[in-house]
Amino acid sequence: MKTYKPTTPSRRKMSGINYRNVLSGDKPTKSLVKGGKRHVGRNNQGRITTRHKGGGHKRRFRDVDFTYDKINIPYKIASVEYDPNRSGFIGLAVYKDGEKRYVLLPKEVKVGEELVTGSNVEAKPGNRMPLDDITLGTSVYNVEIKPQGGAKLIRSAGSYGEVIAKDGNYVDIKMPSTEVRKIHKTAWATIGAVSNEENKLRNYGKAGTSRHKGIRPTVRGTAMNPVDHPHGGGEGRQGRGRRRAVSLWGKPTGKGQKTRTPKKYSNKFIVSRRKVGKKRK
């Protein structure tokens, strides 16, 4: 981690990532980069579905490959680059046939290393294979929910899952949230843990850094009026006045409460629910 001299109150506790020691310094590949408008928490009708998003520095979208449909064609990592749209680092994969793609990198892989996607390949960080070929106890990321559906699970910086059991046509994976989930054995996963594990240790130091990242201010419910939030109102500082903490819309939230939809379609794939609190691991 990189620290700063306390030239201002915000600088005193600010810490960042020393990118010079990790990134290769290459500029983004033009053919894999495009512009576009960010949705900033709004759906296709323009309504806010995720609050506290908006503004921030302009970003260019890197076309990261999560399908990995080039089977048994080795590729070399030509660069390690920063991606403003995700917390992990990405690398430029140059395949033997000349095609270039961006891929999400594990923390052990460096420039010049050769990787491959295929069955019965070496189980080293960065290689990708079906879950049925992965031995128990192995760390994985970029996991598919459905076979040939593309990597959907475990993609944020420093995160990894663990293959803990195999039962019939399914493989049990322990997620970073401690949830244990069944996934079909023909789904694919990448060996290792996502790069940039120091990301969680970063201290922004000031509100302006959050605004640059596109994070808008969050107002506490207890600081609002009763008309604006179920926790609002009262003379001076008051308790929330109810047993459960709730969201703006009265739904249970936080504090270890269960918020998962009771009849969700994927409940049958959950072996054990995630643990909550500081001692969840």
TrEMBL record:
<keyword id="KW-0694">RNA-binding</keyword>
<dbReference type="GO" id="GO:0002181">
    <property type="term" value="P:cytoplasmic translation"/>
</dbReference>
<dbReference type="InterPro" id="IPR014726">
    <property type="entry name" value="Ribosomal_uL2_dom3"/>
</dbReference>
<keyword id="KW-0689">Ribosomal protein</keyword>
<feature type="region of interest" description="Disordered">
    <location>
        <begin position="204"/>
        <end position="267"/>
    </location>
</feature>
<feature type="compositionally biased region" description="Basic and acidic residues">
    <location>
        <begin position="228"/>
        <end position="238"/>
    </location>
</feature>
<dbReference type="GO" id="GO:0016740">
    <property type="term" value="F:transferase activity"/>
</dbReference>
<keyword id="KW-0699">rRNA-binding</keyword>
<dbReference type="Pfam" id="PF03947">
    <property type="entry name" value="Ribosomal_L2_C"/>
</dbReference>
<dbReference type="InterPro" id="IPR005880">
    <property type="entry name" value="Ribosomal_uL2_bac/org-type"/>
</dbReference>
<dbReference type="InterPro" id="IPR008991">
    <property type="entry name" value="Translation_prot_SH3-like_sf"/>
</dbReference>
<dbReference type="Pfam" id="PF00181">
    <property type="entry name" value="Ribosomal_L2_N"/>
</dbReference>
<dbReference type="InterPro" id="IPR002171">
    <property type="entry name" value="Ribosomal_uL2"/>
</dbReference>
<feature type="domain" description="Large ribosomal subunit protein uL2 C-terminal">
    <location>
        <begin position="123"/>
        <end position="252"/>
    </location>
</feature>
<comment type="subunit">
    <text>Part of the 50S ribosomal subunit. Forms a bridge to the 30S subunit in the 70S ribosome.</text>
</comment>
<comment type="similarity">
    <text>Belongs to the universal ribosomal protein uL2 family.</text>
</comment>
<dbReference type="InterPro" id="IPR022671">
    <property type="entry name" value="Ribosomal_uL2_CS"/>
</dbReference>
<dbReference type="InterPro" id="IPR012340">
    <property type="entry name" value="NA-bd_OB-fold"/>
</dbReference>
<dbReference type="InterPro" id="IPR022666">
    <property type="entry name" value="Ribosomal_uL2_RNA-bd_dom"/>
</dbReference>
<feature type="compositionally biased region" description="Basic residues">
    <location>
        <begin position="49"/>
        <end position="58"/>
    </location>
</feature>
<feature type="domain" description="Large ribosomal subunit protein uL2 RNA-binding">
    <location>
        <begin position="41"/>
        <end position="117"/>
    </location>
</feature>
<protein>
    <recommendedName>
        <fullName>Large ribosomal subunit protein uL2</fullName>
    </recommendedName>
</protein>
<dbReference type="InterPro" id="IPR014722">
    <property type="entry name" value="Rib_uL2_dom2"/>
</dbReference>
<dbReference type="GO" id="GO:0003735">
    <property type="term" value="F:structural constituent of ribosome"/>
</dbReference>
<dbReference type="InterPro" id="IPR022669">
    <property type="entry name" value="Ribosomal_uL2_C"/>
</dbReference>
<comment type="function">
    <text>One of the primary rRNA binding proteins. Required for association of the 30S and 50S subunits to form the 70S ribosome, for tRNA binding and peptide bond formation. It has been suggested to have peptidyltransferase activity; this is somewhat controversial. Makes several contacts with the 16S rRNA in the 70S ribosome.</text>
</comment>
<feature type="compositionally biased region" description="Basic residues">
    <location>
        <begin position="257"/>
        <end position="267"/>
    </location>
</feature>
<dbReference type="GO" id="GO:0015934">
    <property type="term" value="C:large ribosomal subunit"/>
</dbReference>
<dbReference type="GO" id="GO:0019843">
    <property type="term" value="F:rRNA binding"/>
</dbReference>
<keyword id="KW-0687">Ribonucleoprotein</keyword>
<feature type="region of interest" description="Disordered">
    <location>
        <begin position="25"/>
        <end position="58"/>
    </location>
</feature>
